Automatic annotation (TrEMBL):
Species for this entry: Todus mexicanus
Protein name, per record: PHOP2 phosphatase
Chain sites annotated for binding substrate: D19, D99
Residue sites binding Mg(2+) per the record: D8, D10, D179
Family of the protein in this entry: Belongs to the HAD-like hydrolase superfamily. PHOSPHO family.
Cofactor section: Mg(2+)
One Pfam family this sequence matches: Put_Phosphatase
Alphabetical UniProt keywords: Hydrolase, Magnesium, Metal-binding
Taxonomic path: Eukaryota, Metazoa, Chordata, Craniata, Vertebrata
GO molecular function: metal ion binding; phosphatase activity
Stretches assigned to coiled coil: none
Length: 241
């Protein structure tokens, strides 16, 4: 009996968007209009690449970026929830699937000593160049028309489950915890015994509600959460069963 917990990162584990938070490092804490307006839908990673070049050009160094990123608040109750999961790792496998990047997630989890809770983190690879610029790559290529071109979370989840099966690991239930539009694709992949936990008032919850109104509801159960305490209550029930 083992459960798989799948977490999004921005607006789920942390209560902000890590990619927009980094702008606090920029001169006057804002980006020039030309750069801000250069974003094209579905091409967020390329846009962030330009943001990182701008920060590098303005002499923003790695240690300053790290200091800024580790001030991001966690979502209410999240530190307690992750502590609880960490104490029950024999029951829970736990992964992050996020459109953030490896550097940001690593900094934030390590500063809070929460990195050991997660078995794997699937996100866009990032690294500092020899010139001290943060560089970013797409996580993978995929053929899903619904997802941004750098990341289809359904593909990540499916490949992870296939790999686990090869190792002889299967899960009693998958619990998917997220908030954004790009979390809908993996939620549609979940089966009837699984649970989607969309954050209250965010895009994922609205999209799931819309599907139900269109009479094509998702197959899995849906439990809305507003603080991580709600998620913990559910996991405690799971363990009792």
């Amino acid at each position: 009996m083992k459960f798989l917990l799948v977490f999004d990162f921005d607006h789920t584990i942390i209560d902000e968007n890590s990619d927009t938070w980094i702008v606090k490092c920029a001169p006057e804490k804002k980006l020039p209009n030309g750069l801000r307006n250069s974003y094209q839908p579905g091409h967020w990673t390329e846009y962030m690449g330009r943001v990182f070049v701008y920060l590098g050009d303005n002499g923003i160094k790695e240690d300053e970026m790290e200091r800024t990123m580790t001030t991001i608040p966690f979502t209410a109750g999240m530190v307690d929830l992750l502590g609880f999961i960490g104490e029950n790792k024999e029951l829970f496998d736990c992964i992050i699937v996020s459109d953030s990047n490896t550097v940001f997630i690593d900094w934030i989890l390590k500063a809070a000593d929460l990195h050991k809770v997660f078995d794997e983190v699937f996100t866009n690879p990032a690294a500092f160049s020899s010139a001290g610029y943060l560089t970013l790559q797409n996580f993978h290529a995929h053929h899903c028309a619904k997802c941004p071109k750098n990341l289809c979370k359904r593909k990540v989840l499916k490949e992870f489950l296939d790999k686990q099966l090869e190792r002889g690991v299967s899960y009693t239930q998958i619990v998917y915890i997220g908030d954004g539009g790009n979390d809908l694709c993996p939620v549609l992949f979940l089966k009837k015994d699984d649970v989607a936990m969309p954050r209250q008032g965010y895009t994922l919850e609205k999209k799931i509600s819309q599907l139900a109104q269109d009479l094509s509801p998702v197959e899995c159960s849906v439990l809305v959460w507003s603080s991580a305490t709600d998620i913990m209550s559910y996991l405690k029930l799971l363990i009792k069963e």
